[in-house]
Amino acid sequence: MRATVVVRPKHGILDPQGQAVASSLRALGFAVDEARVGRVVDLELEAADPAAARAQLKRMCEQLLANPLIESFEIAVPQP
Amino acid sequence: MSEARPRIAVVTFPGSNDDRDAAWALGALGAEAVPVWHAEPELPAVAAVVLPGGFSYGDYLRCGAIARFAPATAAVVEFAAAGGLVLGICNGFQILCEAGLLPGLLRPNESLAFVCRDVPLTVERADTPFTARCDQGQTLTIPVKHGEGLWYADDELFAELEARKQIVLRYAEPCNGSVDDVAGVVNEHGNVMGLMPHPEHAIDPLLGSADGALILASLVDAARDREPLVVR
User: Do the chains contact at A69 and B105, CB–CB below 8 Å?
Assistant: First the structure.
């Protein structure tokens, strides 16, 4: 089963990488107020059904893929 | 019983690059450095452990995030839980934060630039096993070299750490955007410390400063006063 995890800097957390990207985009002439840079992890995993996959992915995020102090995560699995 | 040359483990992860400098510095300061490979599930009988600087496992995902799952890291967590002395330098600090042994975490520098220079540090506490040879309020000059050294804790956590006096070292001038210029912290029990500056690169005036020796020699002193600890 394919699944995707998106990890983002939490709201309010300073994101210097996003600031650098925003300022570069502005230098290119785009009217960008803010950019936040996160991370996308595409996974191929074994799971009985999407609910089981979601439960596994949540544990993966909590244990490794995201650091809860500064990052939030979103999980996308195929609809049942 | 005190040992003349206390044994201190230095853990090498794939990508560690200050392990030999740390071992050399500990040897020069009177300890016997014992190399430990990251795949070792048990530590040898040692009185302290040093996690050195570098880029463990390429620092993929987040710095220290993968090293946290190394067999040797699990052994270090048990060693610390049993009261053993653990010092994390730079990447070692990042690993200890990811492993939950130290509060907060290290993020990319505010400037996004790698900083590599001598920095002045203020000793906030001289009553830890890692700073006993320093004076409180003393300024130390020790080099930093890191891209991800911005120590972060949210307001609530930071207030707790301040109240428990867990901030041990501060940058005396802005360095990387760390919350309140924090450069080094200890855990609640005071037996685990992490710092971003590299004391092992400042143990001889020939290197520009010998102030790092105050930190490492404090650790050697404390290790000498302890029995080697075997955790099984």
Answer: yes
